[in-house]
Amino acid sequence: MRLINRTPGPVLATFLALLPFVLVLVAYVIGSEIRLAENPADKLLPALSSIADTAERLFTQPDKRTGRILLWHDTAISLQRLGIGVAISASIGLGAGLLIGLFPHVRAGLAGFIAVVSMVPPLALLPILFITFGLGELSKVVLIIIGITPFLIRDLSQRVIEIPREQIVKAETLGAGSGVIALRVALPQVLPRLIQAVRLSLGPAWLFLIAAEAIASDLGLGYRIFLVRRYLAMDVILTYVIWITFLAFVIDFLLKKLSKRAFPWMEEGL
Amino acid sequence: MSFVSVRDVFQSYGRRPILERVNVDVEQGEFISIVGASGCGKSTFLRLLLAQETPTRGTISIDGNPPAVEPNPERGVVFQRYSVFPHMTIRQNIIAGESLAQPFGRFFGKAQRAARERADTVLERIGLAHVADQYPATLSGGMQQRLAIGQALTAKPRILLLDEPFGALDPGTRLQMHDFLMELRAETNMTVFMVTHDLTEGFKLGDRVLVFDKPRWDPTDPEAFGATITYDFDARDGGIPYQRLTEETHVPITA
């Protein structure tokens, strides 16, 4: 039987899914053991137990100076920046996508412009943002917006253009005007695409958030990682990295669930 | 003046002629089948009737109204695919037949309840009442086309345009759809234009069969000339393929 036609059973599939995680963990533990055997004070690859201790301390014990549990404050402020940035980008992307996809005049005016703007590397604009908007919250949110909005606009306008022309013509013969077609035919059909596009752009959004926080901030997940880097506090960095990965995974999972729940017509058929 | 009148219509894309000098008059309530080989302008002609395209020369008018420049509620249409809205339930699709013409594309309050009841009557009539709350993707091809026809008729168009509506259906379903369409037509006396690949279907359903072909043919440049209506058959008599030519053929009859 050809390999492409063989499928793993449920047990084997679970095993294969877990395998890479276990392998990475084992590789880390071995590396850590070797280094710690040579030098018990080694900071580069702390033992799993010490990471767990650190994680417990970070999640539960308040900071001595401020009396606050910093990790939760970092998480709250980072999620707030990310949420505001992604929400604004999604709104702009949806609005502009509908306009570009449906109205040839808007398309003629904006499509080329956005194709060029989306090639500007957002991180290269970061200094400009800090100069223009200061070092506060605004510049971080704006970096996320500049980073992911062009992608969202391009993706969504493409999705709107891909709506079969037959449907648009049908709506016209039923007496729908441009506004009604946008609102009742195009909008509901691109909303699931919007969620997909947002899921894809969450990775870049985190990247821009952490980059902005690393450079100028006094609170936030990215700020903390780059702060403790000075002390080679790998245990703290690793805890934060795992925590950020977990957050990103949960957000992605929730968006997937939301999409399934909110758009039953997408899942059925096709 | 006739109900639908097509006068000296030419259509070309760039320098390439598609249709040449198409003239036809259709009375209210006639069922017109449009047949012809691929690339002979059948679908172009339907798009012109639909006003999705405007002819390079000539006019098409319905009931003496000025020629339309874009699709409007005078015309109802059913395509081979993508004729219903996938994000609306079956009932919502029928309601959309009326509500898309409203300011926000929907009814509110009392009007909404009334529209719902009218939609349920339509669904009962077209045999889709049992799936009213499902989405079109769950329906078979035949049911989707029945829904599309019901939706188009809900908007009360003056003419109904069908672009190979049964082309994607299996032969059995196709026969059922023929009965369904003939019943609906008997009830509404709708003027219908149907493009089809299937000659039998064209003669069975149509009162008249228009054949599109290229009257002039340049073997070195097949695209040099456009197509026009070359035959206009009378296809009544219960679909028996016995035709009376209704056009002047210029063939001298010698005794």
User: Which topology of the largest domain in chain B does CATH recognise?
Assistant: Rossmann fold
Order of helices and strands of chain B: EEEHEEHHHEHEHEE
Largest interface comes to: A-B, 23 and 38 residues
Helix content of chain B: 25-40%
Main beta sheet strand tally, sense and closure of chain B: 6 strands, mixed
Give the mean pLDDT of chain A.
90
Largest sheet of chain A: none
User: What is the fourth-level CATH superfamily of the largest domain in chain A?
Assistant: MetI-like
Query: How many helical stretches of chain B?
Result: 6
Global geometry of chain A: globular
* CATH homologous superfamily heading of the largest domain in chain B: P-loop containing nucleotide triphosphate hydrolases
Domain ABC transporter (chain B): 4-239
Keywords (chain B): ATP-binding, Cell membrane, Membrane, Nucleotide-binding, Translocase, Transport
InterPro entries (chain B): AAA+_ATPase, ABC_transporter-like_ATP-bd, ABC_transporter-like_CS, ABC_transporter_ATP-bind, P-loop_NTPase
GO molecular function, one term (chain B): ATP binding
Tell me briefly what this model is.
By secondary structure, chain A is an all-alpha fold. Chain A has helices at residues 10-38, 48-60, 70-102, 104-117, 126-133, 137-162, 165-173, 178-215, 221-228, 234-262, 264-267. The mean pLDDT of chain A is 90.
Commentary on this structure:
The complex is a heterodimer of chains A (270) and B (255). Chain A is built from eleven helices and no strands. Chain A has two domains: 3-45, no CATH class; 62-267, MetI-like (MetI-like fold, Orthogonal Bundle), CATH 1.10.3720.10. In chain A, α3 (70-102) packs parallel to α6, α8 (178-215) runs parallel beside α9 (221-228) and α8 runs antiparallel to α10 (234-262). Chain A is mainly alpha-helical. By secondary structure, chain B is α/β, with parallel strands linked by helices. Chain B starts with a strand and ends in a 21-residue tail after the last strand. Classes of the chains: A mainly alpha (270), B alpha/beta (255).
